[in-house]
Design brief:
By secondary structure, the protein is an all-alpha fold. The protein has one domain. The chain has six helices and no strands.
Length: 123
């Protein structure tokens, strides 16, 4: 899977909000790990610098909002453990099964809102 798809995957697993991770430090660790999995994929060298910058910013936003949603929705230990153990983007996606449909809906809704606020790259 390409890094671009990974950035979108992370954003899809994430959600927007302003709560801190003080209630569950594992949520920050989980989001940081997911970001490292996504960004470990080498970028496509044929992509313009503006697109690469956009992907990097989308990944960071995804990690921040993932952390927020994890705290706000009280993600299960199973979901957190799964995400922290992920070694690939496919592993991250497979962890969706540990979220409730309500949690997945919140992730989708809030991540879409967050991505709307990110300026599209100018080519």
């Amino acid at each position: 899977m390409t890094r671009a798809l990974g950035a979108l995957l992370l954003a899809g697993l994430a959600a927007c909000g302003s709560k801190s991770s003080a209630g569950n430090p594992a949520c920050k660790e989980t989001a940081d790990h997911a970001l490292s999995v996504i960004t470990s994929a080498p970028p496509d060298p044929s992509l313009p610098p503006a697109v690469l910058a956009y992907m990097n910013e989308a990944s960071k936003i995804g990690a921040r909002v993932m952390e927020t949603r994890c705290v706000a929705d009280h993600w299960s230990d199973a979901a957190i453990t799964c995400l922290k153990a992920a070694q690939s983007q496919g592993d991250l996606k497979a962890c969706d099964q540990h979220l409730t449909s309500t949690q997945r809906d919140a992730v989708k809704r809030d991540s879409q809102d967050a991505m709307k606020k990110l300026a599209k790259p100018k080519l």
